Amino acid sequence: MKSHVKQIKAFWLAAVLIFVSVIRRELNYLPDLLVPSDFSMLGQSYDWWEDSVLTVIYLVALGLLVYSRHYLWAVLKNVPVSLYLSVTVLAIIQYMGENAIVFPHTFGEIIEELAETAIYGIALTYLWRFKLADYHSCLVQKLNYKFDHANN
Length: 152
What we know:
Blueprint: H1 2-26, H2 30-34, E1 40-41, E2 44-45, H3 46-67, H4 69-78, H5 81-98, H6 105-129, H7 132-151
Antiparallel strand pairs: 1-2
Helix pairs in contact: 1-3, 1-6, 1-7, 5-6
Keywords: Membrane, Transmembrane, Transmembrane helix
Transmembrane segments: 48-67, 79-97
Organism: Psychrobacter proteolyticus
């Protein structure tokens, strides 16, 4: 039982790490504002450190997702198809805006940013509403069902 709770927490932590790292990549102007252009630590530039830290975060998140693969699959199965379709349509619109397909270049940039904001908003809302207790209670019911049938 404790192992399953750890897997649920690992899944949630992986989701948070992915969300934070994607948002950090999206805010690419922050280093220009906060880090001096000649920054160097241990002989490496800021870009090298940033890429290294984000790579470690991605690898940790991937490891956590592999560890909690059963919950990843459970969550993916329970997401409404309409949400998948909405995000897919927004991603296509974002791509079209970024590459000035159908939209003029200046208007395309606005479309791209609005679509990305909507996708991040959906992800944040879904992550915010994600309740570990829901999966924990389902797990308890499933384990009790297996235990009852094993004793009969």
